[in-house]
Inverse folding.
């Protein structure tokens, strides 16, 4: 790796990658200081305060929305016949998609030995867990009767009732709970050595006790590190198929239904690519401001930003291929139903949503071909917002266009979200921001020991 | 050094010599064996062409897989692809030959010389309504024009990339690398789009009623797996000679093995997803595809593919030591290629006219002979192309990456990192 680093330096100027993985003249101590001081020393910057307060406010709104929902039932939402799956499923898929980047960065990039992941994996894993927490609530609350939520679990009961094992909705229960659990475990495992660093550096007795407890007696011995590395690798191996399987199963929720626009064999890989795309856009959405608030630009560098932007562009192209394949094969199929569905999607009542989605997921990311947009934080942040909106619209278009006009014209209808749909959705975004703000403040948001490993590989410096 | 040619090792020289003998023998024997296969629905030439499409599609996977990998190589500059680059490039240079080999298939829809595509070339009034709706796309002039356009573009891109690569060899000009980087992603996108249409035109349309949006991604992955396996085999024979032997390390095989593992899993993932979605929907215009392939002894072939195209290579390739030995990985690569032959047979043969779904063993023999015949021509040409350039582009600035990678590999092995 040493040589790889110097090899880049011997490149002709025109071929050099953007920046370095760690910028400036750093030492092991300066790296540890930069990250631990966010938790132990620095006052809260205004950006963080804004995120915390607005996030907290919308969390309260979310709570109010839920109370009203449980009191009045799902009639407060816009769902109706024929659209019995409305914003709840759209939001669910949107959040689950966002929750994919974390594990992809942590597990798949670890197996692919991509060192650039070291500065962003912790952050992305936290995002994954909070996004899955938001997603997991929708299947429960869309029942309207939360207290019977346990019915979705297969357990021996006196009524002899079992869930339908052939339904992908049940597979979702298993897939998401497994994904959530393994992601949480992976995240916590990575945190143990860093909690120990916080324990050792904390001056406040309460912080010493708290971080000491969660550090589980980590002493940094060779045996500890050996076991830690083995466990990380094993969990990465476990997580990798989960990344692919979770969103594939979510895509089956639609694809196994005999509905034009839903029944498409390309759905599993197309959904997985969409999830990674949305996830990376959200990582960038959060990383760009937070690294600026806490002066961490030397650790989350222009190189990281450039690489994440490139992955966003690549996955956007896969997603767009999915749109093109859906449209082309709807026409190629010769099936009247498929063709009518696609015509309705592109030119029907919901055409503005479809074209807005094309603008957000196809046109906007094309700017990422240009280096300036990949390295300019404002330009990139703006593009990421297009992606965040576009991925929500993608699910909206899939759900609504196929359901509003199905096989029988007599059952056609329209669908629009209500005020409470909006509040519930925005409420989860607030909840997510609130959790992220707490995470940034109380947990080392960058994996200290892994960035130190990157530093060692780049400089060869010894302790 | 950088402009010298490559000499084939003894084994590959013999393969090249044998290839030119096998080529006419295989094709003639295949044609001869097609005579007793003729039926009321299929003439002798039809039966021959059914085997020909099979053989063509299998060998075609290597130049097109190489096309995609060359683009990925210039985008990612990985060490594994650096040592494979010249194999990919030589395979890409066989695309003009593939066009010549495609002519017998190409002339069918226009001239009616064979009935491979009778599902949409028959008289319009005899076709089901759903197929009639496809005729603006599936009609002989448009179909033929598209095929020629794909080949023209693939050959032009192949010539450009090969030309630049040769120039880089001679001059070491960094601007050429910039050119590669600029065009590679665009050409990869073009590969995906054009292969989608080519797979639809040449394979999906054999069963004119059927379609699947997953089929094209499955084709990319299948071509990738075939190409990787083929590359491992060629690399293992060429790796003992300079300049490759100076740079090729066991790490490169390990990475190629990991890629084979990844592509095997992706193949299974896509095949299973496509099956599950079509099976659960059970729509008449789709399900016949799988009903055909589940009937009689084809069902056994389906199970064999699950067990031996997915499960067995998965388990074998999971073990590190199998990927860190050139001879072992070569054996696995031969095995995977064998499975690819079965998989392509499973995909194509049941689409043709048969009295009842099943495996017809006399057809299997014809398929094998024609496969060997086309392969003979292709291998002879490919190995000839392989000798025209050195096995490494020594003036490429990425060589530093390859060297660094090798050192990294030793370091990790020493530390016991899996």
């Amino acid at each position: 790796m040493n040589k790889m680093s110097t090899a880049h330096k011997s490149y002709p100027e025109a071929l050099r990658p953007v920046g370095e993985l760690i910028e400036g003249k750093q030492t092991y101590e300066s790296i540890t200081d930069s990250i631990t001081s966010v938790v132990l020393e620095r006052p809260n910057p205004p950006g963080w305060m804004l995120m915390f307060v607005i996030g907290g406010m919308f969390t309260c709104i979310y709570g109010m929305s839920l109370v009203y929902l449980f009191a009045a039932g799902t009639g407060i939402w816009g769902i109706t016949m024929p659209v019995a799956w409305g914003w709840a499923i759209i939001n669910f898929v949107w959040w689950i998609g966002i929750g994919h980047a974390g594990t992809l960065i942590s597990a798949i990039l670890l197996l692919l030995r991509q060192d650039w992941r070291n500065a962003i994996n912790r952050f992305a894993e936290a995002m994954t867990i909070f996004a899955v927490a938001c997603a997991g609530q929708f299947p429960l609350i869309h029942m309207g009767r939360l207290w019977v939520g346990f019915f979705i679990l297969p357990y021996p009961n006196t009524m002899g009732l079992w869930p339908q094992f052939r339904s992908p909705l049940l597979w979702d229960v298993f897939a998401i709970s497994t994904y959530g659990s393994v992601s949480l475990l992976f995240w916590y495992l990575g945190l143990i050595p860093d909690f120990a660093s916080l324990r050792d550096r904390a001056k406040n007795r309460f912080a010493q006790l708290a971080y000491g407890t969660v550090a589980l007696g980590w002493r940094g011995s060779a045996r500890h590190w050996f076991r830690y590395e083995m466990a990380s690798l094993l969990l990465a191996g476990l997580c990798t198929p989960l990344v692919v399987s979770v969103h594939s199963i979510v895509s089956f929720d639609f694809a196994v239904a005999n509905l034009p626009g839903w029944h498409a064999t390309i759905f599993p890989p197309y959904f997985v690519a969409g999830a990674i795309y949305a996830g990376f856009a959200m990582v960038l959405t959060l990383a760009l401001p937070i690294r600026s608030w806490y002066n961490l630009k030397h650790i989350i560098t222009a190189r990281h930003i450039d690489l994440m932007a490139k992955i966003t562009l690549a996955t956007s192209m896969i997603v767009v291929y999915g749109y093109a394949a859906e449209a082309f094969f709807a026409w190629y199929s010769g099936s009247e139903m498929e063709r009518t569905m696609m015509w309705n999607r592109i030119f029907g009542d919901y055409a503005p949503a479809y074209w807005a989605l094309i603008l957000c997921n196809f046109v906007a990311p094309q700017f990422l071909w240009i280096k300036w947009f990949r390295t300019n934080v404002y330009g990139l942040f703006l593009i990421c917002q297009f992606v965040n909106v576009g991925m929500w619209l993608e699910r909206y278009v899939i759900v609504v266009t196929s359901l509003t006009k199905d096989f029988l014209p007599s059952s056609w209808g329209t669908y629009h979200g209500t005020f409470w749909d909006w509040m519930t959705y925005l409420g989860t975004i607030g909840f997510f921001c609130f959790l992220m703000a707490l995470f940034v403040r109380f947990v080392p948001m960058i994996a200290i020991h892994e960035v130190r490993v990157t530093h060692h590989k780049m400089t060869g410096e010894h302790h | 050094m950088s402009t010298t040619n490559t000499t084939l090792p003894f084994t590959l020289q013999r393969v090249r010599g044998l290839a030119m003998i096998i080529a006419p023998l295989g094709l003639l024997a295949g044609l001869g064996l097609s005579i007793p296969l003729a039926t009321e629905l299929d003439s002798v030439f039809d039966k021959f062409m059914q085997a020909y499409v099979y053989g063509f599609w299998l060998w075609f996977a290597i130049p097109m897989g190489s096309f995609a990998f060359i683009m990925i190589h210039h985008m990612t500059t990985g060490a594994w692809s650096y040592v494979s680059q010249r194999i990919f490039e030589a395979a890409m240079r066989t695309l003009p030959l593939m066009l010549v080999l495609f002519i017998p298939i190409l002339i069918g829809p226009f001239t009616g010389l064979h009935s491979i595509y009778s599902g949409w070339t028959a008289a319009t009034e005899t076709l089901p309504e759903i197929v009639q709706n496809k005729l603006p796309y599936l009609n002989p002039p448009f179909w033929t024009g598209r095929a020629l356009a794909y080949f023209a573009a693939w050959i032009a891109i192949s010539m450009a990339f090969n030309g630049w690569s040769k120039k880089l060899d001679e001059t070491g000009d960094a601007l050429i690398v910039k050119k590669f980087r600029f065009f590679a992603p665009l050409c990869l996108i073009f590969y995906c789009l054009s292969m989608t249409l080519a797979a639809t035109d040449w394979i999906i349309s054999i069963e004119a009623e059927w379609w699947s949006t997953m089929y094209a991604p499955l084709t990319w992955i299948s071509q990738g797996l075939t190409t990787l396996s083929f590359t491992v085999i060629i690399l293992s024979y060429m790796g003992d000679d300079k300049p490759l032997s100076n740079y090729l390390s066991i790490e490169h095989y390990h990475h190629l093995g990991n890629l084979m593992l990844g592509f095997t899993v992706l193949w299974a993932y896509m095949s299973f997803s496509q099956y599950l979605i079509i099976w659960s929907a059970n729509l008449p215009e789709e399900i016949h595809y799988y009903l055909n392939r589940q009937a009689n002894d084809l069902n056994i072939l389906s199970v064999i593919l699950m067990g031996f195209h997915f499960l067995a290579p998965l388990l074998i390739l999971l073990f590190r030591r199998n990927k860190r030995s050139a001879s072992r990985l070569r054996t696995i690569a031969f095995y995977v290629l064998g499975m690819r032959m079965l998989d392509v047979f499973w995909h194509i043969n049941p689409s043709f006219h048969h009295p009842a779904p099943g495996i017809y063993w006399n057809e299997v023999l014809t398929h094998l002979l024609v496969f060997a015949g086309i392969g003979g021509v292709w291998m002879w040409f490919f190995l000839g192309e392989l000798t025209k350039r050195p096995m490494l582009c020594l003036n490429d600035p990425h060589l530093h990456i390859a060297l660094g990678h090798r050192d990294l590999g030793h370091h990790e092995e020493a530390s016991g990192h899996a």
